[in-house]
């Protein structure tokens, strides 16, 4: 039975008013502008875009400001906004080979056409707090070489004359879209990649790390990491070929992994793939590790570790869903809790009064009650007893 | 320059720059919007491993507009990443005007050509900045 409870409007309004005050902070200080956030906290903005699954730096910066810097809340805000917009087009699949490179490295080949290009990276910094950032100082312009970069063709495509690395070939299959139809497990690789691309970075990082520590080891090498701008094209009636609508920043990671081979296939290197909106290198790397781990079944490897279990990995990767379900615990459960209280009182009374069945029986009933977590709720007491230990 | 090439260049040019470039042409043309401008999304697709089957990466905002010129009804269309209606409208307007033979040459010479040069220059600058972070390996010889 549900009992309607009303009230709290004034409290909620005042709570939100206080929140706005907190967000604004000290009025003697200049207010942060959305432009500043987009320009100076750009990696946070990129993470919000990637996990909200909507590329729009200005809106992501706005979400970040509105959420007082809470990334998961900002992702939620942007994801919610996304539902208000109509879908106008599907793009031609991005040609990451034609990326305007700002960073491109390979951990597998030292000498690659175009070279190892570090770009604006935190790698090789000493991770010492820079107290100069506390003071206002001039930041010098970046260094510029005399000549532009040479072409940086995709490394895995260029350097595999021997066929030692698995080939990725397009068979023209139309990808499943989880925003149109909810995923139905087991899901194919295209669906997995879509879900990983919007997955929480911390979660994917932890799972990727777990594969390195031995839970579903897949011996990865960072074959190539590319970060830069890619032009986006759509097909429209009014033009014969695809038209360019602008460009977006993209991070791509190609992992090369060992594969022992199977009865059908000779041993060869296999691949894990990571792709993310914005400058999201760690996310792209973690995604590539998890993508490869989730291919275990397809490659005939034993599925025995968490990162290899598609339904477990994918069903819990979305921070909007996860935080929503955890947060719902804050909603009133007054009636639910009352019924639990009643039950517990009854069990304790029964526990206190020795009955004809003896002490053992009543303590078993009490165990069933205390073990009444979500899955056990629906079981009769005898089953609960078997599950609880 | 064909309409597809113009659309690309106009979409890659910041709106402010487009606005000034358009004003300088001073064509004094009158037009009306026949579709939009409106904003929606495009689903961005990637490819597994960069070259394999397509998958849906996530969406991006996209604005579009179509205009008709007042005097002869010539249509023009524009699409641009983001939510800037005016940018989409300007692209559509320039597209419509450039479809008129009497204006096409001027638009290409006085607007599109400088924009193409500026885009190349900006990209060259970024590329040179990246090139400055390219690693030059040298090998140490140990022992004789």
From TrEMBL, chain A:
It comes from the Bacteria. Residues 348-389 are annotated as: Disordered. It holds the Pfam family PhnI. GO terms for biological process: organic phosphonate metabolic process. InterPro entries: PhnI (IPR008773). This is Alpha-D-ribose 1-methylphosphonate 5-triphosphate synthase subunit PhnI. The lineage of its organism: Bacteria, Pseudomonadati, Pseudomonadota, Gammaproteobacteria, Oceanospirillales. The gene is phnI.
UniProtKB/TrEMBL annotation, chain B:
One of its GO terms (biological process) is organic phosphonate transport. Pfam families: PhnG (PF06754). It comes from the Bacteria. This is Alpha-D-ribose 1-methylphosphonate 5-triphosphate synthase subunit PhnG. It comes from Halomonas beimenensis.
């Amino acid at each position: 039975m549900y009992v309607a409870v009303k009230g709290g409007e004034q409290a909620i309004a005042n709570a939100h008013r206080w929140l706005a005050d907190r967000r604004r902070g000290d009025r003697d200080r200049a207010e942060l502008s959305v432009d500043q956030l987009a320009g100076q906290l750009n990696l946070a903005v990129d993470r919000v875009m990637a996990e909200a699954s909507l590329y729009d730096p200005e809106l992501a910066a706005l979400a970040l400001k509105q959420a007082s810097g809470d990334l998961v809340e900002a992702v939620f805000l942007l994801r919610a906004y996304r539902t208000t917009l109509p879908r106008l087009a599907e793009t031609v699949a991005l040609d990451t080979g034609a990326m305007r490179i700002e960073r491109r490295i390979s951990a597998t080949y030292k000498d690659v056409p175009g070279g190892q290009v570090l770009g604006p990276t935190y790698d090789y910094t000493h991770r010492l707090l820079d107290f100069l950032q506390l003071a206002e100082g001039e930041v010098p312009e970046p260094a510029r070489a005399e000549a532009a970069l040479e072409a940086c063709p995709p490394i895995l495509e260029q350097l595999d004359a021997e066929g030692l690395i698995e080939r990725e070939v397009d068979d023209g299959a139309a990808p499943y879209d989880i925003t149109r139809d909810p995923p139905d497990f087991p899901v194919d690789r295209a669906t997995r990649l879509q879900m990983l691309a919007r997955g929480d970075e911390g979660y994917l990082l932890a799972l990727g790390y777990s594969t390195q520590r031995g839970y579903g080891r897949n011996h990865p090498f960072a074959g190539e990491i590319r970060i830069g701008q890619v032009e986006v094209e759509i097909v429209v009636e009014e033009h014969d070929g695809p038209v360019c609508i602008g460009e977006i920043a993209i991070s791509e990671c190609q992992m090369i992994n060992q594969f022992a081979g199977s009865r059908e296939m000779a041993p060869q290197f296999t691949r894990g793939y990571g792709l993310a909106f914005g400058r999201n290198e760690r996310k792209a790397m973690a995604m590539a590790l998890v993508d490869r781990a989730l291919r275990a079944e397809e490659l005939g490897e034993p599925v025995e570790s968490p990162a290899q279990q598609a339904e477990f990995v994918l069903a819990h990767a979305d921070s909007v869903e996860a935080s929503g379900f955890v947060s719902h615990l804050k909603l009133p459960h007054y009636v639910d809790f009352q019924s639990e209280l009643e039950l517990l009182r009854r069990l304790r009374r029964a526990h206190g009064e020795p009955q004809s069945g003896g002490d053992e029986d009543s303590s078993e009933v009490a165990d069933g009650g205390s073990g009444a977590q979500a899955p056990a709720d629906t079981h009769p007491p005898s089953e609960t007893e078997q599950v609880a230990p | 320059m064909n309409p597809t090439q113009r659309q690309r260049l106009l979409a890659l040019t910041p709106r402010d720059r487009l606005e000034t470039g358009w004003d300088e042409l001073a064509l004094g043309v009158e037009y009306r919007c026949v579709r939009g401008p409106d904003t929606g999304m495009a689903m961005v697709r990637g490819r597994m491993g960069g070259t394999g089957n397509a998958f849906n990466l996530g969406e991006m905002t996209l604005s579009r507009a179509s205009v008709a010129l007042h005097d002869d009804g010539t249509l023009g269309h524009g699409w641009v990443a983001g939510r800037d209606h005016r940018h989409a409208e300007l692209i559509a307007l320039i597209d419509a005007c450039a479809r008129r033979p009497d204006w096409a040459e001027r638009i290409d010479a006085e607007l599109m050509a400088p924009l193409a040069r500026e885009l190349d220059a900006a990209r060259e600058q970024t590329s040179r900045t990246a090139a400055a972070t390219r690693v030059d390996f040298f090998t140490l010889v140990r022992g004789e």
